[in-house]
Design a protein that fits this description.
Elements (H helix, E strand, L loop, with lengths): L14 H5 L4 H14 L5 E2 L11 H12 L12 H15 L8 E4 L4 H10 L7 E6 L3 H9 L3 E6 L10 H7 L4 E7 L11 H11 L6 E5 L24 E6 L12 E4 L4 H10 L6 H12 L3 H21 L15 E2 L4 H7 L4 H12 L1 E2 L1 E2 L14 E4 L4 H18 L2
Parallel strand pairs: 1-10, 3-4, 3-5, 5-6, 6-7
Antiparallel strand pairs: 2-8, 7-8, 9-12, 11-12
Length: 409
């Protein structure tokens, strides 16, 4: 029987499209914006981006590029000047030598997650990718979308949100093709130590079939000790995909400019960009060149401000009954344990607490389930982005303390 002429018939969506995950920070941000439009006063800690303007010298470089007519296509791998500058900067801060030809520039660092997984795993072949949980949700989303098998490795509070190297060894099989590392880490703010990386490298040397995706987008936002990269350890550079970019360091999230370095995969990533974006925005590339090579005063001022805010928010959270928070070593995230706060307020779990904080206290955070399945035995957590003003931090934590006090049973 034919459908009525006015019926709307839509062809089916693929299983891949249906299963594609999302980044809930943007979902919650939409909820926040809807409440703000209704006149609600919301203190938001949900989005992970600097609350500073892009430094003026970088803005000026972009304007100069526009005025000079630099707004057409570039080579898919990026302009030579930026690739050379990124190679020098990536190498200098990691103590390694990187050739400009090893660097590929993209429209943000995020696309390289998909490019890397697609480049080292075969769809439907049972290839496995080990990734951190809790972790950036796009890792698991892209593993599944690219037809690989996600293998979570748990970051435990008792280990300051690092994983047990023995647990890594136990998860490696003959099908393991990629290990994803993120340091400093989203959402916990933890950083891998030199000892952690040494233990990981020792294990990987016994498994030469495994690539490493080193997501180091927060590498300049380390507060306790020096930043360390797996790529700097013997035998690791060739198999490590170093991922970094302009977004977090220079408050350039909307400029969409990231880059990776790996000699063997650079030509493959370049072809991916040719197939997808053609190239990153030329204007953003010239701006990023100025970001890397120009004065670093503003970037350092932002880092100092984030450190002050870290100490402020951790101190205030640890004064709230039912909440305990470890001090994160980098990035701009706090990951407090709210297990007791959930019990006191009658919340079923962290997601229930998140919803009530938003709707009853006017405070927006993200729940642990937005970053993967909860770590067994580690309780309930929420994420704060402390890329917010000190006044907003004080107001938000005060609202949470009042909510817990008035809602306690």
């Amino acid at each position: 029987m034919n459908a009525p002429r006015d019926a709307k018939v839509v062809p089916r969506i693929s299983r891949r499209g249906e299963s594609l995950g999302t980044e809930n920070a943007f979902v919650v941000l939409a909820e926040v914006n809807a409440l703000v439009r209704q006149g609600r006063d919301i203190v938001s800690f949900c989005i992970g981006q600097p609350d500073f303007p892009t430094p003026v010298n970088i803005q000026d470089a972009a304007v100069a590029a526009i005025r000079a007519g630099k707004h057409g296509y570039t080579p898919s791998a990026g302009i030579d000047e930026l690739r050379a500058a990124a190679a020098r900067d990536l190498g200098a801060r990691r103590g390694i030598a990187i050739d400009p030809d090893d660097v590929v520039v993209g429209a943000g660092a995020k696309p390289f997650i998909a490019y890397a997984i697609a480049s080292v795993t075969d769809f439907g072949a049972g290839d496995e990718v080990i990734y951190p949980v809790p972790g950036f949700p796009i890792y698991e989303s892209q593993i599944v979308a690219n037809g690989a098998l996600p293998v979570p490795i748990h970051l435990r509070e008792a280990r300051d949100f690092a994983f047990d190297p023995h647990e890594l060894e136990a998860r490696i099989t003959a099908k393991t093709r990629l290990l994803i590392l993120n340091s400093p880490h989203n959402p916990t703010g933890a950083s891998l130590t030199s000892a952690d990386l040494g233990a990981i490298a020792e294990i990987l040397r016994r498994h030469p079939q495994i690539w490493v995706y080193a997501d180091e987008i927060y590498s300049r936002l380390c507060y306790d000790g020096q930043f360390a990269s797996l790529a700097a350890l013997p035998g690791m550079l060739e198999r490590t995909i170093i991922s970094d970019g302009a977004s977090k360091t220079w408050a350039m999230t909307g400029w969409r400019l990231g880059y990776v370095a790996n000699r063997a995969l650079a030509p493959v990533f370049t072809r991916w960009i040719t197939n997808t974006d053609s190239c990153a925005s030329q204007i953003s590339q010239w701006a990023a060149l100025e970001a890397i090579t120009g004065p670093q005063d503003d970037a350092e001022a932002m880092r100092r401000s984030f450190l002050e805010r870290r100490d402020l928010i951790v101190g205030l959270l640890n004064q709230v009954p039912g909440i305990s928070c470890k001090t994160p070593g980098g990035a701009f995230y706090a990951w407090p344990n709210v297990t007791e706060a959930c019990k006191r307020t009658g919340c079923a779990d962290s997601e229930d607490l998140r919803k009530r904080l938003l709707n009853e206290a006017g405070v927006a955070v993200l729940a642990d389930i937005h970053f993967g399945r909860r770590v067994p035995g580690d309780g309930q957590h929420v994420r704060f982005s402390y890329a917010a003003s000190p006044a907003a931090i004080r107001s938000g934590i005060e609202r949470i303390a009042t909510f817990i006090e008035t809602s306690s049973r």
